[in-house]
Every structure is written in structure tokens, then in C-alpha cells.
Input
Amino acid sequence: MHPCIEDYALIGDEQTAALVGRDGSIDWLCLPRFDSAACFARLLGTEDHGHWRIAPDGAGACTRRAYRPDTLVLDSEWDTPDGRVRLTDFMPQRDRAPDLVRVVEGLDGRVTLRGSIRLRFDYGSIVPWMRRAEGHHVAVAGPDSVWLRSLPQVRTWGKDFVTHSEFTVEKGEKIAFVLTWHPSHEPHPPFIDPSEALDSSVADWQAWAAQCRYRGPHRDAVMRSLIVLKALTYAPTGGIVAAPTTSLPEVLGGVRNWDYRYSWLRDSTLTLKALLAAGYHEEAEAWRDWLLRAVAGDPADLQVMYGLSGERRLPEYELAWLPGFRGSAPVRVGNEAVRQMQLDVYGEVIDSLSLARSSGLLVKPHMWQVQCALMEYLRSVWRQPDEGVWEVRGTRRHFVYSKVMAWVAADRAVRALEENPRLEGDPERWRAMRDQVHREVCERGFDPERNTFTQYYGSRALDAALLLIPRVGFLPPDDPRVTGTIDAVRAELTCDGLLRRYSTDGPVDSLPGREGAFIVCSFWLADALHLTGRTDEARELFERLVGLGNDVGLLAEEYDPAAGRLLGNFPQAFSHLGLVASALDLFGSGTAG
Output
């Protein structure tokens, strides 16, 4: 039976990541980057599409597993009739090439293990040529080359284009396996010492975690979320991917399957606030710098998302040979939403850069010029309809949250000029725009009969993004329109106490099937309840949301309350950002810097 999403754990090296199942199988790995083609794609297909399993002979799921404290080093243990054995999986931070290390250690008795590795490049479509060289296995196909070695060497054999192994460990014995990728036209990079790499990885992660300033309740969950965010950071550029996966479904068996291996601008302010408040100024500055590089150019060309290095072309296509996670097809690579118009991203970028300035990050000489250019363009287009923050693939509309974020852009620009009169700008026109947007939203985006803001002008539908109205400062938390909106969203979008983004039954959503509860939206609800004085309710909801994580503390994009299962791409940066931000607001200092 195909594993569930929550059966997986994450390992990575801040340039790519792998998903490891409870059964000891690595079912997803893209090399050399997050957005590269997968060489293990069983996650979205079958064993024939690539995986690497090591486990005791005849065993199923491991007996227990856990990350080593404050690291991304995973230990999985099996209790068998013959003894106990541990499998340690990790990816050391790379020098030149990515390495995936698996260390088997005997804990008790004498245990026989089996290994099988199916390397299938290009998302499971290409079977490489396997050969032996220098006592190791080498797989080559086109631009990709992978070396597989064991220390000490174990007995291996090939059958049906699969490399098998069998070996026995006694208490205290260790066998390490290392998989190393490099471009096939280059000589292999220097081989790492797996024991030294393990010690260094544990030390590096724990030293990084020790910088965290949060000391409140649920520190383990907050630290795990911060480690996930660090793991999803593409270290060479500072960009953070929304998730390391593509096409994990929002509806099992449905078509709501998208590629999230890119960086979204809508996450920028929340990312910056979380990193700053937790004490990670270096990462915050790297994210800010990535943001400045990505958005550079004509403000009219601002995109919803960008590639790891700021790439703009992310064409969407389907992989017809992959049946999808539990039959959820199509499997997509790329994301067509990159071409959408979303007014909220202008507010996000200007808000993020304003936060960076006020928090004491090193000011870049051109940062204010970028904000001014974005502001002037937004002033000319804010009245236009757009696709909205959730990237609906239907008709453009006047989404209320998009207009609110246009107000945020004008508000932050005006404030910057008020705080620093030496900056060049047009405060009168920006102030006039801010007032116009506010007036229009309150007149056209508010339903006085139900005392709630609506999803878009003239509609009765609601949107969980409306919960952010008090957080961005559009209205104070004690405004009756704010409390009315919170109550209405909670009443109409709740599914077993958790929030959906919006109703998929209305005209906005053009796809079949209903999605699950969107986890970050429920964190937004907790934040909104706290802001409006209902802190006990907020903390109760937060406790439940933390409990949605799997056994190693990872959250997906969505959750199915009926089935009690995670849905969507995994692990999801947005969900973990929501957890960190809510914890800081509810239990710690929410002040950045």
C-alpha cells in the first residue's frame, strides 16, 4: 500500500531534500537542486519510478523514529526477533557535490538487512547504465552521474535494473552507504568520510539551533519549524522554496496538484518577521537580498513566484508516465500561476523591505528606489481586478485582500517618508491613494448586513485571508467590522474547527473537488483571536494545530479532518511559518529585531 504523506520525514542539505518513509525507503529526491528532476520518484508513482530502501529482512515500518535533538539527522529503529538496528539518514552540507548518507548500526543481537536501490533519472523515466568503478557502483544517463559506495563494502548484485544488497550487523557494528551525484561529464568529486560527516552535521545543526531566541511553550515545535525553514532555504541564493515536492494532492485522487519547489512573494513578510523575531538575522538578510534581486526590473513584470535563483520562466507541463500520489493526476512540473496578476505581492514586497529597514538590517543603496518604483506602478493599476492571493484559475475579480495589500503598500511607503523626510518620494499622492483604497474597500468589500468583509466586491463569499486585516493594520483589532469578519469566517469556512481558504463551491474556484483545511489559515485564526482578546481560544486552537504534525513534527499544506490525514505538498514552509509566528505572538515576543 502506498504510504501516507505523514509517513515521511525530511532530510536535506539546504540545496535539495529527500523524503524518507517509515519503511526505510527514500521515495523522493531531486538532484542537484530542489527544482531538478527527481531520481527517486516513487512518491508520485510506483517502485519502478525510483526509490532506495534499507530495512531488516522481512520488516515493514520502523518501530520508532526521531530526529536527533535540534538537527535534521533522522534515526529510524526496528525491533526484530533477532535484535535491534538503527538506520541514520542525513545529507551533509555540501562542498561541491550533494551526498546522501545512510548509516546502519547494530544495537542488539544480530540482524540481517536488505537494501534495494532503483535509480531512475528524470522523474522515473530514465534507467541509467550501471557499472563498477574503483570498487563502487556508478550510474550514468545523460547529464547525471551517481556513485554508490558502502563502508565497509557489502555484497551486492544487480537484477532487473535494481541494485540489491544483503548484510548482517551485530551490536556496535556500523555500515555506511553514501550516494553522491555529479555532472556526468566531470570526474567524481572527493568522497566524504560518512562518520566525520555525521558528527559535523549534528554539530552544525545544533549550533544553528542554539541561536534561537524563543524560550516559550512548544519550543520543540517552534525549533522543528525553524529547522524546516532552514532546510527549505536554497543556500547559494537565500531563496526559500514553498515545499520540496510537486503534485502532492489537495484532494486525494483529484487534479489539485501543483509544483511548490519555488519561492512565493506572498510569504515574504511572514518569513522575514519569523526569522528576525527568532534571532536569525543572517537568514533574514539573505532572504531580503534574494527578494531584491528577484523583483529587480520593470515593476510591471513583478511575479507571484520565482525560481531558486530568481528565475522567471517556470513553464508548467505534465508528466504523463507518473500516476500520481495514490492516483492523484496529473503530476505537474512548473507552475502556470507565475503568469498571474496578483496585486497583493506589491504590498508584500514593500512591507517586507520596510520591515527590513525598521529592523536594522543593513540597508541596500537601491532598496528605496525599488520600493518607489513598485509604489508608482501600483498606484496606476490598483483599481484593476486580479487573480487573488490563492491563484485561482478563473476570472479575475476585485479581491478584497488584494486591495487591502495595496493599502499596505501605500501605508508603508507613506510611513517611511514620515519617519525619514530625507527619502525622495511623493507622499501626497501616496497618501491620497491610501485613503482611496481604504474608503473603497470599506464601501465595496464590506457586507453591512452580515457585518463582514467579503472575498471580492459584490460577493457574499468569504476568504480566510480576511483574517489578516487587523494584523496588517488596515483596521484596529477592536473595530466591530474586524470582529464581525473573524466570526463570519470562522462560522462559514470552518471544517471540524479548522479553516478552509475559501469555499470551492462558488464561482471563484474553477476546479472539481473540495480541498482540505489550509493549515496556515487556522494559525491566522489563532492570531486574530489573540489580537481581539480571545487569547484562551487562540492558545487552544494553537495546541490543536501543533498536534496536526506527524510523528517527527512536520506539517503539510493542508489537513483532511474527516480522514485525519495530511494533504498537499510536504513539508510546507507556509504552515511552519504560521506555527512560528503564532507561537511568538501567543507565548513569546512578537517584536522583530
About this structure: The longest strand covers residues 99-118. The chain has a mean pLDDT of 95.
